[in-house]
Amino acid sequence: MWQHRCERLGKTYRLTLGGVDRWTIDEARQIAEAATSHVRTFGNPPDEAWLQGYLVEIGKLAAPAPENDPAMAGFPTFAIARGEYLEDLARRSRKATVDSYRGFLCMPEVAALDDRIVATVTRDEVFQI
User: Rounded to the nearest 5°, which phi and psi values hold at 115?
Assistant: First the structure.
């Protein structure tokens, strides 16, 4: 089994990445590097939910259907989240900044994401747009 191990505040954390028959050594290293980056960025060890989300993000797993995934309950659609984000941004940022973000987030290409649960939209999808 491939594993990622990290230490945080004197405690060791292990995350099983999967069997050696599932991932090549390069794939396991890629996943482990992302897990290490997560620890450095957020200060907490990655868990199984992080691993599943990362594997979906890099295309190694299919995203669960939002209506079948109880973890998605309560998340807004992308259109609702965009509106709330722009409202919050308008309260704390300059008009030019808000206009710049609105320009991107309101493009027709981005509107294709409007009906999706925001938690299912990946960085790669936004990057491709």
Answer: -90, 0
